Every structure is written in C-alpha cells, then in structure tokens.
Amino acid sequence: MKTIILLTIFYSLTVGHCFTQNKADAILGYYLSPDVKSDDKTQLEIYKTSDGKYAAKVVWTGNKAKRHLVGTIQIKNLTYNPKENLWDNGKVVYEGGEYSVTANISEPGKLKLRGYLGISLFGKTIYWTKEKALRKE
C-alpha cells in the first residue's frame, strides 16, 4: 500500500512539473517585432538560458542600418510565473536604457509585452507575432 501511495505522489509531482514546463516553454520561438518609434521590423528568437530563464536576441532586421544589432540580446531574465500564466521579472534593453518587462501569450500567435520603468502603469505595450522560421535576407 505504501508503494502505491509513494508512486502516486511521485507521478503527480513529475507529471505536474512537466505540464508547467510545457506551458513555460510555450514562449519559445521566432517573433516579428515592430519598432516602437519607426516602421522597422525585427525578428527575435526567444530561447531558454542555462539558468532556466528566457531571453530574446535579434536574429534578423529589415533595416540595413541596424544589421549590427543581429546577435544582440534585447530581453533577458524572463521567468515563468505559473500562478499568473505569464513571464515576468525580465529586463528589456532599448536605445541604451534598461526597462522592466512582462510577457504573456494574449492569443495564439501573439505575444504581448509590457515594458516599463518603475511601475507598469508608466509603460508601453507592444505585440509580437510568432513566426515559423528564421527569416532570410
């Protein structure tokens, strides 16, 4: 009987962790992002870092003058919050400044990001569109 109880507890803990992990990894992939100050488009890849957090780096830009940004990390330290079903505690780097950022999947294929300084009330929301693959030149 003890074995059955222990197996049940072990199973529920490991399966529960797997479901949470799958939800956390739902953010992974390529996204097309509009620039908040221009009509430029940039593709970023959200990936999982070695410490289990999430980051985003530029992998493509449509503006030749901004090609030097390819490979730069634009978002770092996003952490999945299963209670809120969002990623928070992240930092976004934009034009030399560093801002707090939260992210959530607002609808299939859309990632809602809120960048702010201090409190979320004083910030900006943008939407990234999920893409299937890395863009080519």
Short overview:
It contains one helix and eight strands. The chain has 137 residues and is α+β, with helices and mostly antiparallel strands.
Description:
- The protein is α+β, with helices and mostly antiparallel strands.
- It has one domain: Lipocalin, CATH 2.40.128.520.
- 17% of the residues lie in helices and 49% in strands.
- The chain contains 1 helix and 8 strands.
- An 8-stranded antiparallel barrel has the order 1-2-3-4-5-6-7-8.
- Strand 6 and strand 7 form a beta hairpin.
- The chain is globular.
- It starts with a helix and ends in a 6-residue tail after the last strand.
Index terms:
Lipocalin; 137 residues; eight-stranded antiparallel β-barrel
Secondary structure topology:
Layout: H1 2-24, E1 29-34, E2 41-48, E3 54-61, E4 73-81, E5 86-94, E6 97-107, E7 110-116, E8 123-131
Antiparallel strand pairs: 1-2, 1-8, 2-3, 3-4, 4-5, 5-6, 6-7, 7-8
